[in-house]
């Protein structure tokens, strides 16, 4: 996905949405669709679709629209989904265990290959369909599994130390579910997922202050 490294997160998120929409159209065995047709069908913006896709090439055919299969294949490639990405989960509590078995983390493009934890009761056992290794073996786990992505699901107090260990181990990207903000460093890509913040945003929107 080297072409996308300078692309905004918002644009990349929309490309992912477009790809899911195109996959649905493929299941319906459709061949082409216009930007307006795509927008109307999936409640998107046709102007935004054209603007986003134009960053990566000229996909539309005047009078025809977008050819669905080639466009879906190109977005699949742009998003780096044309090869398998091994994932490790750091922190195999309830959330980590649930994510290890999540189908979205285990498909043609992603695979959870191991979990790590520092709790002796979890080490050398299977949770969420994966083997749990000792956190002290993290570097060996990353090397053995060739993991590129780590999902961090540890308590706040352990997040910084675990994050530093992931950087040292050579992980390239971290999805952080720990309830503490972290900073990108060492060339590692970081994405924060604060579920509590999203819940509090939802309650605010339910009954905003006057």
Radius of gyration: 20 Å
Binned, the helix content reads 40-55%
Q: How large a portion of the residues is in β-strands, by DSSP E?
A: 15-25%
Average pLDDT figure: 92
Topology order in helix (H) and strand (E) letters: HEHHEEHEHEEEHEHEEH
Major sheet: 7 strands, mixed
Notes on the structure:
By secondary structure, this protein is α/β, with parallel strands linked by helices. Helices cover 42% and strands 19% of the residues. The chain contains 8 helices and 10 strands. The chain has helices at 9-27, 35-42, 46-54, 68-78, 94-100, 138-145, 156-169, 195-206, and strands at 32-33, 60-61, 65-67, 85-90, 110-117, 126-127, 130-134, 149-152, 173-176, 189-192. A 7-stranded mixed β-sheet has the order 6-7-5-4-8-9-10, with helices on both faces. The chain has a 3-stranded antiparallel β-sheet with strand order 1-3-2. α1 packs antiparallel against α4 (68-78), α2 (35-42) packs across α3 and α6 packs across α7. It is globular and about 65 Å long. The termini are far apart. The mean pLDDT is 92.
